[in-house]
Target: Integral membrane protein
Amino acid sequence: MSPESTGQNKHNFTAYRRGFRTWRGDRPFWAGLFTMLGGAPIAYFPYADLRLGNMTLAMSTTAGAGSLIIGILLITLGLTMWFHSIVRVFAGVAAILLALISLPVANIGGFLIGFLFALVGGALSISWAPGVPKADEEDPYADPSPLDERRPEGPGHAEGALHGAAVPQQQVGDHDAASGHDGGTHRAG
Model:
């Protein structure tokens, strides 16, 4: 290695990793992944062959076409969750319904593997909500805004009344020593 060589550039890997993290945070990533992982065994098992020596076990049943359709729809819904997250609730409900339909139609939901993955993916998709951008969040360490802007005007609203605290009002007949004003009625004399 010569002194002029820049060595390995680790910045590119870090930039790609941060970009992926941002992309993943803007959508229901895990919901889409679980839904696609649920669709794969549902579509695969009816067409798979297990070979034990010279003996071949096939899981081909009359539900082969139904399994393939359910599996492909689940994979499509997982991709929809990733790339069109605005319809995440619809995709989540559809994934849960397809997972439930796969129990009787697709070899017990891909031997329960696909059923459980699709069910969890659908539930995650329904419960996911986009985050609030940092600029819109309130800073918990910022100085509170003055209460004068939010205080209602008029009689009976004293300091602390906004927060539900009972603050005693000055009695009408009390004498205010600072102003020399008697709180009672005045008579012109």
